[in-house]
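G., the chain you wanted modeled:
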Amino acid sequence: AVARTLGFDVAVEARDLALEHLYTYESIGDVQDDPGGRAGRIVAGVVADLDGLDAEIESASEHWSVARMPVIDRNVLRIGLYELQNHPETPTGVIVAEAVRMARTYSTEKSGSFVNGVLATLARIVRET
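Predicted structure as tokens:
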């Protein structure tokens, strides 16, 4: 699959495709088409629990409401938190690293470290060991 909505034309994996669909969802208020497969499951899971995910993200992001976050950052965090909660088979480090990669690729220069900090906090809460 190829991501084009975000202004990039690159081969993508499921998380990137999910991010593209969530970006479109926020822009027009609807999921245009189901990307199918793993990306479709991520999109459906995030959309179904949007309020719950946002509440947890806000509680972990000091002084930042989800509404004030750049649209890419908040959707990267939603995907990461959804995976932390619903995919225990995926290592925490992989989820965080992929979220940071997407933030650095598609958002601002500072987004990678912001996403890393918030998601690391959420990972400690969600996956207490």
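The chain has a mean pLDDT of 88.

Shout if anything looks off.
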